[in-house]
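#onboarding

Welcome to the new folks! Below is a worked example of what a typical request in this channel looks like: someone posts a single protein sequence, and someone else replies with the predicted structure as tokens. Don't worry about understanding the tokens yet, we'll cover that in week two.

Example request:
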Amino acid sequence: MEINFFSAFVNSFLAAAAFGVLFQAPKRTLVISGLIGAVGWVTFVYLGKVAGYSSFYANLFATVVIALGSELGARVFKQPVTVYVIPGIIPLVPGLGMYRGMNMIIQNSYEMGMNTLIIAAMDASAIALGMMFMASFFRVLKISKERKILLAAVRKNKCEGNK
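Example response:
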């Protein structure tokens, strides 16, 4: 089965931007959040379908890409990170897997339903893990930068006090 990456990019861009509108994100952030969501979805599709990674790892790496783009976009455009990460993550949310799992359970196919729900829960966990990893990484960078500024100020005061 041939994957049309252009179509995947455009559709996920529209989905992410539409959720940005739905969540009342500022208009100037919609294009960037759409791009972040589209790049994340294409990353997920490539890793899952072409590179052969499991959906857990494809979701994890795609979420890291989305979170990285959101953190950088927030700093460049002086907006909160959530304005970019929430619409950007929407294409990855395993809603269809959860629906199918519940549907199978309702139709008395318990084993298949539970298997599908466990996979969907693992995918949701991968998304949370990827977001947490990147948020922690940027938090450490921020604390490191603030610490360097504080140490420079302390050294400056110490030098002025000796004079």
